[in-house]
C-alpha cells in the first residue's frame, strides 16, 4: 500500500509541483489549502505524514496547524517554508516537526525528508509495540478507557457520567479507582489537561482566545478566562504576552 501524504499548501503552482514529485515517487497524495481542509482530512484521508506550508491564508497559519497536530493527532509533519530567519525557526521548533525544507526546493530534499520521517515513525511504532505490555499495566483497562475518552474529547464538555459509562464501573468505584491510579480526581484531571492544551496554544499560536475557549469546550470566553486564571494566576491575554515565543 502506498504511504499517504497530505500536502497543505495554498500556492497552486507549488502544490502541483509537490504532487507531481510525490506521485512520481510512489506516494498516495491529497492536497489541502486551508486549516479547515487539513483538519477534515485527518479523518477522511488518514495521512501517515503531512507536508505543511507555514503561511497559508494567514501568516504562520501553518504553525497553528502544527501546534494542533502536535497536541491532538500526533501525525508527523514537515514544514515547507520560504523563511529562514531566527524568529520563524524558533516558532517552528516549538511545534516539534520531524523536518523542514525551504523554498525553492529540490526533489531530493523532499524525498529524503519524507523517507526519514516515515522510517522514524515505523521505528517508534515498533518500539511502542515492544513495550505494549508494560504500558498496559500502568492503568487498569476501565481507567485506560476513561483516559482515552478524555484525550479524544477535550474539545467538548466532559461529564463524569460519560466516563463512568465508558469504564463500566459503578460511580463510587470509578471515582475511587481513578483517583488511586491517576493521582487526581477525574474532574481535576480533565481541568489540568484542558489548561495544558490552552497554555500550549497561547504560547505557540496566534489563535484568538475566543477560539481556544471554543476548541476546549467552553461555552463562553468568560468561563474559560475564569478557569485559566484559576489555573495559572494570569488571564489568557497576559499569559500569552508573558510567555509567547
Automatic annotation (TrEMBL):
<keyword id="KW-0238">DNA-binding</keyword>
<feature type="modified residue" description="4-aspartylphosphate">
    <location>
        <position position="53"/>
    </location>
</feature>
<dbReference type="InterPro" id="IPR018062">
    <property type="entry name" value="HTH_AraC-typ_CS"/>
</dbReference>
<dbReference type="InterPro" id="IPR011006">
    <property type="entry name" value="CheY-like_superfamily"/>
</dbReference>
<dbReference type="InterPro" id="IPR009057">
    <property type="entry name" value="Homeodomain-like_sf"/>
</dbReference>
<dbReference type="InterPro" id="IPR018060">
    <property type="entry name" value="HTH_AraC"/>
</dbReference>
<dbReference type="InterPro" id="IPR001789">
    <property type="entry name" value="Sig_transdc_resp-reg_receiver"/>
</dbReference>
<dbReference type="GO" id="GO:0003700">
    <property type="term" value="F:DNA-binding transcription factor activity"/>
</dbReference>
<dbReference type="InterPro" id="IPR050959">
    <property type="entry name" value="MarA-like"/>
</dbReference>
<keyword id="KW-0805">Transcription regulation</keyword>
<dbReference type="GO" id="GO:0000160">
    <property type="term" value="P:phosphorelay signal transduction system"/>
</dbReference>
<dbReference type="Pfam" id="PF12833">
    <property type="entry name" value="HTH_18"/>
</dbReference>
<keyword id="KW-0804">Transcription</keyword>
<feature type="domain" description="HTH araC/xylS-type">
    <location>
        <begin position="144"/>
        <end position="242"/>
    </location>
</feature>
<protein>
    <submittedName>
        <fullName>Response regulator transcription factor</fullName>
    </submittedName>
</protein>
<dbReference type="Pfam" id="PF00072">
    <property type="entry name" value="Response_reg"/>
</dbReference>
<dbReference type="GO" id="GO:0043565">
    <property type="term" value="F:sequence-specific DNA binding"/>
</dbReference>
<keyword id="KW-0597">Phosphoprotein</keyword>
<feature type="domain" description="Response regulatory">
    <location>
        <begin position="4"/>
        <end position="118"/>
    </location>
</feature>
<dbReference type="InterPro" id="IPR020449">
    <property type="entry name" value="Tscrpt_reg_AraC-type_HTH"/>
</dbReference>
